[in-house]
Design a protein that fits this description.
Oligomer: heterodimer
Shape of chain B: globular
Largest sheet of chain A: 6 strands, mixed
Strand order of the largest sheet of chain A: 6-7-8-3-9-10
CATH superfamily of the largest domain in chain A: P-loop containing nucleotide triphosphate hydrolases
Number of domains of chain A: 2
Number of domains of chain B: 1
Distance between the termini of chain A: 43 Å
Structural class of chain A: alpha/beta
Mean pLDDT of chain A: 87
Structural class of chain B: mainly alpha
Number of helices of chain B: 11
Largest interface: A-B, 34 and 29 residues
Low-confidence stretches of chain A: none
Strand content of chain B: under 5%
Largest sheet of chain B: none
CATH class of the largest domain in chain A: Alpha Beta
Number of strands of chain B: 0
CATH topology of the largest domain in chain A: Rossmann fold
Low-confidence stretches of chain B: none
Helix content of chain B: over 70%
Strand content of chain A: 25-35%
Chain lengths: 333, 270
Amino acid sequence: MSGSGPSRDSDSGKAIVAEHLCKVFNVNKGFLRRTKSQVVAVKDVSFEVDYGELFGVVGPNGAGKTTIIKMLTTMLLPTSGRAIVLGHDCQKDVTKVRERIGIVLGGERGLYTRVSAVDNLNYFADLYGVQKNIRDKRVKELLDFMGLSDRAHNRVETFSKGMKQRLHLARGLINDPDIIFLDEPTLGLDPEISIETRHMIKELVEKGKTILLTTHYMFEADELCKRVAVIRNGEIVALDTPSGLKKYVMDTSVVEVEGFGITDKEVAKFKEIPDVVSVSADLGENKQILKLQTSKGSEIIAEVQQILKNSRIYDIKIKEPTLEDAYLRLVEG
Amino acid sequence: MPETMRVIYSAFRMAMLHWMADPQWVIPNIIAPFVFTTVALTLFKDSTGPFGLYAVLGGGMMGMWGNTIYSSGYAIEFEKWQGTLEEVIAAPSNLMHVITGRAISNALFGLTNMLAVLLIAGLIFRVPLGIADPLLFAVGLILTLLSVSALGLIFASAFVLSRSAQALTNGLETPLYIISGSMFPIALLPFWIHPAAYVLGPTWGIDAVRLATSADYASQSFWAGMNPSFAIFLDLMIMMLITLAYVFAATALFKIVEKRARTTGTMVEA
């Protein structure tokens, strides 16, 4: 794997330029009475990514993150707007863009499970036009980098989830891309493997790669990204550094309640309090965590105790807002 | 190796690895030919002349047809089921070259189907397997396989463009066996069916293979009365021209497939 920086052939000096990107899907329903409707997946999205930057795109399910990635990787045509990657128009210079980018889509699919890791990598190397002498060396290097050398000739169906994810990453790097698009790379992975994956992502940035990452996990975006775009209903609602985004909630603090027996009805009551900006609840079977983002600070504690009088409260903490709190405030409007 | 050939070879190799890894290939390639051969030889057991070999060839052709068209037609669907279609489309290589490699691999497996029929007939049913011109037989068989592969490319793109194409092909499987002359010579079919037979490349290939197999077939060939070697040459030339037309049609269809995939984003959904 090359450690040298990418060749910069963009007039704008940017690795990625998204200019007013829009994507509208036509949806046909029914058989006898066919109805046509339109779904706006992405609305007027514009941003730029510098060479060597790790840029994050966060948003809830269905916000349009994957659609943006697909337009930037030539897999989808925008309804309007322009996507420029490494100086090439994604709509017209499809092959030039594809040759120099890598894509890692999350999940366990996307690999040929009946064949070995080496066969998977060799195959994709050929599809990317990697010369045979370079291919063999690179496949070996990538398997070493991902810690898969011992299992190189085993069928992928015998791999654990974490091993498959590492193989996905190796496949995304097979053409030594200048830009890597990572779509939720740690989704569904256990904490240990997620940490390992994030470590690898950091190493790639150190090697000079530009990375566009989508994720659901705010701590991941906070740890890895230089800048983050928050997407809601297909639109960018904020774009800043993680610390810049946290400023959106600087006027608030987070009250974290740990308890048991908290009901959805009680959670709804918190949402009605005017000074509460956002409410998130993890109502597990054994332990429940309720987070209230509020401008009232510790003054709200009495009110919390009143609403939860029929529940058990183990602990109440006042915390500084995190990127997750900023995100919740932004996506909840 | 030129870029295109490398992609085709790599896709061919990947498909072969999958065939080998999946024991299900035994059903279409060994068990089905065995059934075909048994039925065909039972039907022709009281006939005189080279009917045994004729029936065996028919069974083999049918197996080859079904195997190749089914596998090639579902080549893109296979990538969907694997969840690899997005990754393949995102690569800079042409999707049609990838599917071509898969289709050729399927054709080669189709050939094993035919060989299995011949072996089963010869070793188990003791059918005499004398082939009049082994070289032309082999050339005819290989070119027919390529023609079937090219037809498979059209099916592959049609399956993606329209779900009804799948249902249509399933329904057309048996009529195709009949029209292409796999089951019995075209000459025995009503005249109005002949034009449909003539636009199928493999129809001509099957005629060539039968001519190369037995001199007794010459009277039922498209070129009755002509020198058999020249007749085979004409059959193969016509088939290659039709195959070329298939390739052009498939190229156009694949462009539509890719454009639609990039516009609607629905192609990769399993």
